[in-house]
What we know:
Layout: E1 2-8, H1 16-24, E2 29-32, E3 41-45, E4 48-52, E5 64-67, E6 72-73, H2 75-86, E7 94-97, E8 101-102, H3 105-118, H4 130-139, H5 151-165, H6 171-184, E9 188-189, H7 191-200, E10 204-208, H8 234-239, E11 249-254, E12 257-259, H9 271-280, E13 293-295, E14 297-298, H10 299-308, E15 313-317, H11 319-322, E16 328-336, E17 339-341, E18 352-358, H12 365-379, E19 383-387, E20 395-397
Parallel strand pairs: 1-10, 1-11, 2-5, 2-10, 5-7, 6-8, 7-9, 11-15, 14-16, 15-19
Antiparallel strand pairs: 3-4, 12-13, 16-17, 16-18, 19-20
Helix pairs in contact: 2-6, 3-4
6-O-phosphoryl inosine monophosphate binds next to helix 4.
Amino acid sequence: METLTLVGCQFGDEGKGKIIDYLSKDFDINVRFNGGENAGHTVVVGDKTIKYHLVPAGFLGARTVVISNGVVVNLKKLVEEIEFLKKFRNNFDLKISEIAHVVTGLHFQRDSYLEKLRGTSHIGTTLKGIGPAYESKFGRYGIRLVDFRDRDKLEENLALLSKVYQIPFDGTYVDDLMKDYSKINRYLTDTRSYLENELEDGKKAMFETAQGTFIDVESGTYPFVTSSYTTTAGVTVGTGLSPKYFKKFLGVAKAYTTRVGEGVFPTEMFGPEADELRKLGNEFGSTTGRPRRVGYLDLPILRRAAKLNSLDYIALTKVDVLGKLNSVRVAVSYESNGSEIDEFDPTRTVDKINYESFKPWAEDSSKLQYYVDFIQDELRVPIVLIGVGEKREAIELNGKIAF
Ligand code: GDP
Ligand code: IMO
Ligand code: MG
């Protein structure tokens, strides 16, 4: 049994999609285990751009792709995504957990309602009903795919949800849901048993999180987080598999930091410098198109991510973008309450940031190697892959990955 679990080390959008696509050909199975269509994982294939929202980003490389129980599924979006992806691969094998929860229109309305209720303290969610879908799951009034087997039962469950939210629904609403369900029900199965059998049979699987470590509902900058477990800890509950299957962990980190939505961002840049980096990196949300906030690389954040996720490896993306800046800075430690700290803690305020400066490397690759060596020495985690462009082949190897 060989598995690799891949997570985002910052606030999401680290370039996970590109790394998953690259690694997927080495795996039989690729599993997505959390989040929903709030995710946008980009892979650039020739002159075509694929943005995966619900389907695992290893769709083109792995033999089988699995959407496991930890994911919340918008049926309409899934149907559209499968139709779109068929253009790129027709002979795919997709499996979807029958106990995954469904995001309905009621959840969308609830998301907007809660954001409005928060006023100026809004989270800046993707408004895709994600928080409410997990809210109803944990509240035990959620809708699961398995509920669609019996229309009466589905209507009963929807009626309870509509009472809790005090939002009415009608029969056509159920018809639409059933129509979308009929297009995907052939993919439904007990993904936990399937994965367990495959792993026991010696097959190789890669597990992918959506989002990033610091928007994890437990370990992130609460309440400015998403509503799922985005760290490696989430892989067991998100798949139903025993922890014994998970031994190797890879974190994807962007060579600088970005964040979409509200919440603390210690190394955030503002003004023309930020605008330049946003433009160079094309930092606009893959799901909502919102401009991403941008900032310097933050080692205290990465140190915490390395520990929380037990990282064995790091993939560092977008060094090509950062190298185009005239000056490159990296946060090496913070000052907080009169003491120097070298690890990010979402509950502590950062009074000052200590930076180290680096020479840009657009013209000189030895300066890039110096930057990469510096980061991996500081984190004590090998950087094994380096992203040097948006195309799927723009990756350099910087060491060996064993899993
Ligand atoms: P994800 O959510 O972590 O999969 O990341 P996104 O796809 O939302 O955002 C990452 C963006 O950076 C996408 O537009 C990718 O095509 C792009 N990207 C990924 N790696 C690299 C890289 O090494 N260099 C450049 N220039 N772009 C990259
Ligand atoms: P990928 O997988 C970046 C952010 C939203 C918002 C917060 C809560 O592409 O890295 P939600 O809709 O989840 O309730 O929003 O989380 N967010 C992401 N930011 N990348 C993502 O996914 C994100 N998914 C959610 O912007 O701040
Ligand atoms: Mg993304």
